[in-house]
Design brief:
The structure is a homotetramer of 239-residue chains.
Chain A lengths: L3 E7 L3 H4 L1 H6 L4 H9 L4 E7 L10 H5 L3 E5 L9 H12 L3 E4 L7 H7 L6 E13 L13 E11 L9 E8 L4 E10 L2 E6 L12 H13 L19
Parallel strand pairs in A: 1-2, 1-3, 3-4
Antiparallel strand pairs in A: 5-6, 5-7, 7-8, 8-9
Chain lengths: 239, 239, 239, 239
Amino acid sequence: MNPLRVTIWNEFYHEHTDERARANYPDGMHECLARALKADDLEITTAWLEKDEEHGLSEEVLANTDVLLWWGHCRHGDVRDDVTDRVVARVQQGMGFLPLHSAHMSKPFTRLMGTPCTLRWRENDDRCVVWNVNAGHPITKGVPLHFVLEKEEMYGEYFFIPEPEELIFLSWFDGGQVFRSGCTFTRGLGKIFYFQPGHEVYRAFHDENVIRVIANAIRWAKPPQAREFRAGASMEPVV
Amino acid sequence: MNPLRVTIWNEFYHEHTDERARANYPDGMHECLARALKADDLEITTAWLEKDEEHGLSEEVLANTDVLLWWGHCRHGDVRDDVTDRVVARVQQGMGFLPLHSAHMSKPFTRLMGTPCTLRWRENDDRCVVWNVNAGHPITKGVPLHFVLEKEEMYGEYFFIPEPEELIFLSWFDGGQVFRSGCTFTRGLGKIFYFQPGHEVYRAFHDENVIRVIANAIRWAKPPQAREFRAGASMEPVV
Amino acid sequence: MNPLRVTIWNEFYHEHTDERARANYPDGMHECLARALKADDLEITTAWLEKDEEHGLSEEVLANTDVLLWWGHCRHGDVRDDVTDRVVARVQQGMGFLPLHSAHMSKPFTRLMGTPCTLRWRENDDRCVVWNVNAGHPITKGVPLHFVLEKEEMYGEYFFIPEPEELIFLSWFDGGQVFRSGCTFTRGLGKIFYFQPGHEVYRAFHDENVIRVIANAIRWAKPPQAREFRAGASMEPVV
Amino acid sequence: MNPLRVTIWNEFYHEHTDERARANYPDGMHECLARALKADDLEITTAWLEKDEEHGLSEEVLANTDVLLWWGHCRHGDVRDDVTDRVVARVQQGMGFLPLHSAHMSKPFTRLMGTPCTLRWRENDDRCVVWNVNAGHPITKGVPLHFVLEKEEMYGEYFFIPEPEELIFLSWFDGGQVFRSGCTFTRGLGKIFYFQPGHEVYRAFHDENVIRVIANAIRWAKPPQAREFRAGASMEPVV
């Protein structure tokens, strides 16, 4: 079996500008994730906003990506529209897409959802309990009924997304908020999984359960069988 | 417009046997709900386990019920199977059904769901914050983004139900748990809304937001247009 | 009760350029629909591509529209992007949206879906049988289990949309094709209903069942309660 | 990797009583299916109504079944209730379940659905075109956009089921009917796929596409990770 080709995309901005982010992710979140997710069945590459003029996401890179992880935050607006179009089209044709944490407002995710994807937030050292509400789902394989992140940014409702196809995780925060923190969607042939943990000033991507979830989600989001999708074709009678 | 015919069914057992339940609901929860829900467009009647041999749910009563509320807890097993069949059939034909709190394990609800509907619980004076995650839904009309019940039984995940068609509320509890606390389902022509608050030793049915939700849900669950459903009929070609 | 404010938007191009379209809809489809849908509880206005520089869809018009019908076909590309943004934002804030027939590829619909919304088609005088597969839904009130359109453009699978939240109609065509012809979606507070009949060279908008479906859908798509949606707001603890 | 343990259950009645059924399936449908599905990764056994007093579905057999296929028709009522309970419970705990054709009214399927699962039918040598409406789904791997069964019993709407979680196939029939012919559901940990073809007097289980769909569905319905589901457990605070 060929390995699954994974591209981890990171805005890679806070790690240069915020001491706390740098302390947590000295090489960038993408490198931290790449190390944590390393496995024989995965072929992992990384890309970031300023890697090249196309943010490291040329036609060729995307054509050779089975599953794309995406972390972005304060520079969503700097992502080129034509690159966004390319990502969206690839998802519709089958590429898996895993927007992480503040990627809820990234261009590709909001384009695929058709909603603003806004939410309520608070950076206040909240404790976060992540609950597994879909125990039979491949994304929760080996994940306990709940796990605790000692500090995480609060992300709370109302989360302005379409009703998820499957709700996988719910998060609880000290301050009284809850959040639909793991949600699946399908757009065309492509599977999408949004997952909430991962604020740059905390350490979620060093947590084994967070990594297990992302690792499971990568395998789950594997593109389906190749299939020709002819857009807008006319068709003869079949009987 | 004819009023909507609402039947409030209550097990009506704890109110006789538990001082705290009696203090909260001296006439029974059904009477408390009937008073709180009183409105010109509703024609409310009540029934309970020992009202008569059919638990107050004769064929005639059900034939004249548009929406049925159901509260039960420790005597689920005493509900007759033929009465359960009757309730289930009426829901499938269009009667709205609102199982409240511990009715999650009632015979009609588990029959309609096809799952055990078990959950995790704790009676420990938890504070409960109910979050509205479906701001455009008729059930949340006039309901704020969140409201607090100072004490409520903890109901937590994993809640062993089919994926809800619409998730309306999520609940947060002091002890770290979360719960899918307002869920809609359709079975045939009948609409179903499960709602979590309402432990007998606390006072949820005296809370204005809880009542508003139930009042909205009654209107939402109104049976659709009359329609003949012929079960298992053969059919001629139509072209 | 205030009337529901309905705006019927039509590309209004084929009626000028195709004899068959003009014969069916001499004043334009929008006028035909406006007449057929006339009712005391509706306040209907019309707009079209070349009505003014904003296609008749100024900020003010949209702010005063509760439900927007949309028919477009060969000039989707001529709809301004800023007007599209405006329509999409209004839907997310609660305006009902009813894309009809070839509006499956209109800018607002594809933007709200996050998919190309392509399909297979054939203009060949196919007979079309429309089946009601959601008998309890308000959109099917008074609509029989099936009805026949003697001639309609074939629209067939694969229809490249997200899984509909509710499937309301399926269509059968002489040539052996089927189609998910009535589909609901929610985007934020706004309800969306796609409905297939309405090719310009046939007469679907003169059919009483087609009109009944659209009339029901308008009432169903009524915006929900007013509610302030603060985009991306921070939030204090609530406990 | 251990093989998937598949049990094919057949009523095995028409093959004794109807010449046409016997001609199509001289050893019974279960044997035909077992031969057609034979593969290295599957360990296939068969059972039938009169195999033993428990219809060949003892506790031990079910405990060792990963995916259960079910074909029944005129003797649904002869299936023991305790065996039905056992099948239902196993599905909820993770066993895959594939009700075929007239199993739409079998006891286990209707129990899991919570609806009567009735439909319209006609035995009239209709041609049936099966359309793949979920091209990215594992169940449609290698299955073309459409395939034709030259003769099949007509199964038509209204199909009295809950809204499927995923719609996979739609069927077209000569006589003008359509049908939601491939539908997925989840109940607890168990995956369910209903598939329409398979009338005893026709030859669907000799069709390569039908077999491919069932073969795919078996792999898709594989039970998830082992997980302890404690029913109705109390729970301590976690923070």
